[in-house]
Specification:
By secondary structure, this protein is mostly helical. It is built from two helices and no strands.
Length: 132
């Protein structure tokens, strides 16, 4: 964008210089010549102002568009991260429940096995006492 503005400025300056030389070399009266030069320079200034306003407007539109795109992309990324975080938490909760259930089952199995061994030992002792 800067290069384009430099080119436009150079063209305007060149055109102004060329027009000024052309008017200076033209066979007119001094007052008419000065008036023509002033009119031409005023026209150039107006053209430059309009071009600058147009360029500023284009830059503003482009930057607004870029900002909107960045906001949308950032918002989407935040939402994706939030969803992934929720999925990770749900997965962790599920695995924790599974581990707790498995631990409970293993604990219950161990209790039943211990009761069975105690009962077996008690029966063995009872039988040995009654046989004696």
């Amino acid at each position: 964008m800067k290069d384009q503005a430099k080119i436009i400025a150079a063209l305007l300056v060149g055109a102004a210089a060329g027009a000024a030389l052309g008017l200076l070399l033209a066979p007119e009266k001094g007052g008419d010549l000065r008036e023509d030069i002033a009119d031409y320079i005023n026209d150039l200034v107006d053209t430059a102002k309009n071009k600058a306003q147009s360029t500023a407007s284009d830059i503003k539109d482009y930057s607004s568009s870029a900002i909107d795109k960045a906001k949308a992309r950032f918002s989407g990324t935040v939402n994706d991260l939030y969803d992934r975080g929720e999925d990770a938490v749900d997965s962790a909760k599920s695995k924790a429940r599974e581990a707790a259930d498995r631990a409970k089952d293993l604990g219950e199995d161990a209790v039943h096995e211990a009761k069975s061994k105690v009962k077996g030992t008690a029966n063995d002792w009872n039988n040995s006492i009654q046989s004696a």
